[in-house]
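Researcher: I need the complex structure. Ligand is D-xylitol-5-phosphate. Inputs:
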Amino acid sequence: MKTDLKISPSLLAADFSNLELELEKVNQSDADWLHIDIMDGVFVPNISFGFPVLKYVAKLSQKPLDVHLMIVQPEKFLREVKELGTMMMNVHYEACVHLHRVIQQIKDAGMKAGVTLNPSTPVSMLEDIINDVDMVLLMSVNPGFGGQKFIENTINKVRALRSLIDRKQADVLIEVDGGVNLETGARLVEAGVDVLVTGSTVFKAPDFREMVHQLKSLAH
Ligand code: DX5
Ligand code: ZN
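Model: Output:
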């Protein structure tokens, strides 16, 4: 069993009327990263928050930023993402015509590079890029909204990705995002996931810290 499971709480599920308090909860917990969902209303049918707000979020967060860009042409915002102090910049496979170039640009800017797959995009599309990325983020819901139901086929995709990583001897983390709770989380850990993104499960829990602790304990 894994002992190094990471938890990345998704800010999208936080109470925006009191972001400082919500970020304090994250800071005080065993969460490893802070997951930030940026949307443009084009790549996904929703808009979340932009850089003027995120500048303050970044200032208040003591956790490394795991930024998930659900936008077209994400390379246009490379500088803004970098200026937040981002640790991991995740771009969608479906949003990048020249994915290899974008991955190199992210790494040249001094960030780790993640590639994200929609539920309908097969893991096999990563065959020729897997050795260039630091992480693969598998969407287990259609991106754009929190609180959706986990898509079961994600478990098969985690297994397929684990086997691609092993075959290519790649040094790549597997992250899953959407509908993650204690039940789906346990099965994802068993399938070989390294990082669980979780929004509603932690932010709507009566005790944020305790829920993060329980999710982390799935690895033991
Ligand atoms: C969806 C976002 C997710 C979302 C997850 O587009 O990428 O990060 O916040 O929310 P839950 O955990 O509630 O499904
Ligand atoms: Zn996300």
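Model: Summary of the prediction. The beta strands are 6-9, 34-39, 65-70, 88-92, 112-117, 135-139, 173-177, 195-198.
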